[in-house]
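Field: COMPLEX_INPUT
Field: COMPONENT_COUNT = two
Field: RESIDUE_TOTAL = 574
Field: MODE = joint
Values follow.
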Amino acid sequence: MNNRGVANIFQNIADLLEIKGEPIYRVLAYRRASETVRSLGQSVEDVWREGGLEEIPGVGKAISSKIDELLRTGRLEFYEKLTTEVPPSLIDLLRVGDVGPKKAARFWKELGITSLDELEAAAKAGKLRELRGMGKRSEARILESLEALKRRQTDRVLINHAWETAQGLLASLQELPVVVKVEAAGSLRRWRETVGDLDLIAASEDAGPLMDAFLEFPQVIRIIARGETKISVELYDGLRAQLWVHPPSRFGTALQYATGSQAHNVRLRELAKRFGLSLSEHGFKREDDSEITCAEEAEVYQILGLPWIPPELREDRGEVQAAMENRLPQLLTQSDLVGELHVHTDWSDGASTLKEMVEAAQEFGFQYLAITDHSQSLAVARGLDVDRIRQQRMAINEIQRSMGDDIHILHGVEIEILADGRLDYPDEILAELDLVIASLHTALRQPRETITARLLKAIRNPHVDMIGHPTGRLIGIREPADLDMESILEAAAEHQVALGINAFPERLDLSEGHARRAVEMGCLLAVNTDAHHPEHFTFQKYGVGVARRAWVGPGSVVNSWPFDRVYEWLSTRG
DNA sequence: GCCGTTTTCGGCCCGACTGTTTTCAGTCG
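Field: COMPLEX_OUTPUT
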């Protein structure tokens, strides 16, 4: 069982215990364990084998013995017993807005409801309003939430979708005279790979008129809730957005609060208590109720004796401790990336010509660019055979001559790792190329040993310089290949083969957990866009987000190196 | 159920918003 499997079970346990009415801190313990296992950079099975389960934050005796049982037997008696006490289908009800554990439990016990369909039928039949503490309006809200749930296909959207929607809203808000400034917060500001809803935070003295204007935006289709400092709406695409409005003098604490994560905020508030302070979105309160307000976010951290912590690190993964000890990492920035090493053209499945891509790369500010079209076996992408790739070399030389020294063009390939582990070109062809990226595109469902061995073989080939998108996952569409990542990272570190962080929003592969582990193990990384069109260069920011969330600095990212150093690294290889 | 620069037992953040309520519970972030 992989990390996701274990994490899902603990998440279900937390939900079921909460519906059952167990003490909330017991519930939170399972939820926290679920999250740490999910985002762990290593396989939980490896940790288990080495006897290190209890070193995982949030995993103690009780939970580690449950992980042990799961990994040994594939089953968990405690969980199976729990599902006989509380129907697991009740977990679906929690996805409905305004339905939490308490209501789910009552719907089940008092009305026999165990599914979304039954909930909808009961609401339509006017059954919910008969419960004590419920009324017509609660029933109508639940029906609305059920409709909203149907409108949105998934609970979380890809980051590029959220980013683009947010940019539109921010631009319109910016234009309103009552707005002093406005920023996106929440998981978007933390650059999580998917986003559940948009959190926008505005500085203004006139919350009411600002919210009125916001409701007039064409993107807004429905109010979910509205108060004095916060309005929550549904957007045309099913995404939900929250807009917080605070006076400019309190913008710092408000932005900090809305950025989260929740676990990070809890840490800060615990820390504040040690100073005799209480921290909320409005500001700090001393014990005598006097206030300290912060217009800037950095002041919030400063008052707690900390340097400003970049949003990407705010996940309660040791960043507060690191900040206290003044050892926050220097994080990669977009401006560090002076080159791009993974790009396609219309020689294979790209949309643009060689020249267009080179010119676009130069315009984007790259000092060097590697052209890496697909190899022959990937027929769907019109992969290049040996003759064609040799012809492409000449075409590249021609363009390099016409462009002068302003941009260095490398000739590479994204080579197929065939199902049996061989590469798609003979070694002597690979030796002619400046850069070889090896990628898995087919037979991704092979068993763990087979597919791991296949990737290891590619890493050990002296001509291979980089791995394209190591696990092949597509967020929400395809699971990552079942790789023994620990061995992969070890081999990549040993052979100094760079691992790509592919910036395509549905890939983001390596994921942040693996990327963090990779750096710990001394691997080289590369943040590449895999552009098939000039516009795809703008995906770079999403790859940078993954790297930053993984605590990655510029030193280990090869395309942040100057061209001479990259060239030297490549020249010393096969 | 976890955890320790107050603690191995007793804590474990803080507030907004809604609906159905006469003072609060539930949900959400």
